[in-house]
Amino acid sequence: MNKKERVMTTLDHVEPDLVPMTEMSIDTPHLETITQTRLTGETSLQTQVSADRTAEMNKVATIVLAYRKLGFELIPCDLSAPDGWSSQKNPDGTMTDEWGRVLSYDSKCRAWVPTDSIFAMPEDFERFPFPDPYATGRTFAIEEMKKNIGDEMALAAFIRDPFAHAWEMFKITNFIRWLYEKPNFIRRVIERIADFNMAMIEQAADAKVDLIISGGDYSEKRGPLVPVRFFKDVVLPNLRRQVEAAHKAALKFIKHSDGNLNPILDDLANIVDGLHSLDPTAGMNIGDVKLRYGDRLVLMGNVTVDNLCRKMKEEIVEETKECLRQAAPGGGYILSSSNSWYTDAKLENCLAMVHAGRKYGAYPMELQALSKL
Amino acid sequence: MKTRVEMALAQNIPPFKIIQSMREGLSKAGRKYEEGEYFLSELIMSGIMAQELSKMLKPYIQSSRNQFLGKVIIGTVKGDLHDIGKNLVSTMLSSAGFEIIDLGVDVSTEKFIGAVEKENPDIVAMSCLLTIAMDEMKGTIDVLKQTGLEKKVKVLVGGRPITLDFAREIGADGYGSDAIEAVSAAMDALRK
Question: Which pLDDT score is estimated for A369?
Fold first, then answer.
């Protein structure tokens, strides 16, 4: 069974030969250490910051090299900025992306992160030139990655969830204020971003991706960021539209979210094909989710990212074994951390997770070997 | 809300009583959030409304330090640009009656120290999300000790990777695992 077959078998809830592994993303310093290369160009985990295709090709090649070295089976790829686009550089050293997010440079992670917004009031959005999903070049990185990997690994198009995208665009305090003061406005924005995403899913399918992963958080550690009724009325119906677009193109759809998803888990299980990251620090228990939804949901996670930063290798190995023990039997499980490999994660811990995944992740699961006893 | 405040003022209800009611309401919202009845958006919206109410009443209240429970300098430490948690704490502290000087994100030790010297606050509150930025908190506390400023201010720390043990280890006076705890920690710090 090759790497891609391993993922596709897993997505069909059948046990492959080995538990497939991946990471949603790996920060630049770790990518460079793993590949012993230098990344050129600018990057962000949340958005596109450049349409410099030479730099993008370098980034794609570096990510592919890293995922190959790690033996990962699944490789996610961001959308690209359209041909000829460039970010707006601001006098204070920040930049503004295509979505009106103002980004500052994080020198430790060597990435641009959203810190502000151009939207001070809802009327600013009416004047805002909404990004055109059909602008050429949006699947440049995906096509480049497909050229690099062929059918070696499964390729996931990484899109941004409309709910999270909207609160990142407006900043969370404005988003919440407008949610209560102008709920129809927020509804309209989320619908519009979902329309954009549906067009992107169609184009990603044309570029021969194997699945869709949707990033962006729904919850914090105590529960959903906004009342469940808003999820049921607005967020989840728009999630469903995107999932249907993916299914129409015969692609499975995995939803990522940090935080405690338990209050909306039933609804999510009826919409998406898989869940990442099953955040243990927010009370998400992968064993419980497997027990309740394992026949419907592919689970992806959930070695605690905070533990990758703080704990010892031996503890990471035990935690990885526990994830495998609880989530791998019967298939439908992809091993990863509970978010991504941050700059502050110890690389030796990340590699310990990978080695443990390979050592103990062979089917049929030897549950005794995975036991702590 | 604006109409209700105007009605209260027209009925000669003293502004400080309106503010007191607002703080009680906010405290209730905090409890409901802690108990799982309120979602984060409801807590944040309560804070936004409280801030607006405070602004509306400002002309009616003589400007003096006495109207505040205390002055807090707050910022996300150097090397970290995350501000959602810091902003939430800032909003909740402000609504609870603290005067807030928000230094923003990526705040160096020098900037914290300069602000302490200039503003003479009661509390310095430091936030971070990234583990690699945690040492900055200790660095700032060390300089506060070296310069003797530590005797004049209490230091609170918080953020995703911060634990009570870490707070104690670096010599912080208080710690909050979320915005609600941060307000309690600030109240406790004033009593120390």
Answer: 66
- What is the pLDDT, as a whole number, of residue B64? 46
Mutate to test the interface with B, among A92, A95, A115 (most CBs of B within 10 A): A115
B10-47 pLDDT, tens digit each: 898 888 788 888 878 887 888 888 888 999 999 889 88
Closest CB to A226: pick one of B41, B82, B84: B41
Cβ-nearest to B45 among A109, A180, A343: A180
Nearest to A303 by CA among A293, A294, A315: A315
Q: Crossing angle for the helix pair A347-360 and A28-35, nearest 10 degrees?
A: 70
Compute CA distances B158 → A295, B176, B178, whole Å: 40, 5, 7
Residues near A57 by beta carbon (within 8 Å), at least 6 away in sequence: A144
Q: Are strands A211-215 and A252-257 parallel, antiparallel or unpaired?
A: parallel
Distance CA A6, CA A19 (A): 8
Test A107 with B41 for CB contact under 8 angstroms.
no
A231: domain CATH number is 3.20.20.210
Q: Count up the domains in chain A and report the number.
A: 1
Angle at A231 between CA A228 and CA A234, to 5 degrees: 145
Domain range for A26 is 3-370
- Please check whether residue A113 touches B, CB under 8 A: yes
Interface residue A112 vs chain B (CB under 8 A) = no
The answer to whether the bond into A364 is cis (omega within 30° of 0) is: yes
Instruction: Tell me the pLDDT band of B90, cut-offs 50, 70 and 90.
Output: confident
Find the Cα–Cα–Cα–Cα dihedral A223, A225, A227, A233, rounded to 10°: -120
Q: Do B87 and A107 touch (CB under 8 A)?
A: no
pLDDT greater at residue B5 or residue B141: B141
Closest Cβ opposite residue A179 in set B33, B41, B161: B41
Q: What is the pTM of this model?
A: 0.89
Look at residue A298 and tell me whether its pLDDT is greater than 80: yes
- Bridge-based pairing state of the strands B70-76 and B123-127: parallel
CA–CA distance, B35 with B22 (Å, rounded to integer): 20
CA distance B31 to B36: 9
Residue range B180-184: mean pLDDT, rounded:
87
Interface of A with B in 41-80 (CB under 8 A): none
Determine whether the interchain pair B160/A342 forms a contact, defined as Cβ–Cβ distance below 8 Å: no
Are the beta carbons of B39 and A223 separated by less than 8 Å? yes
Cβ neighbours of A173 in B, within 8 Å: 44, 48, 87, 91
Which 8-state DSSP code applies to residue A280? G
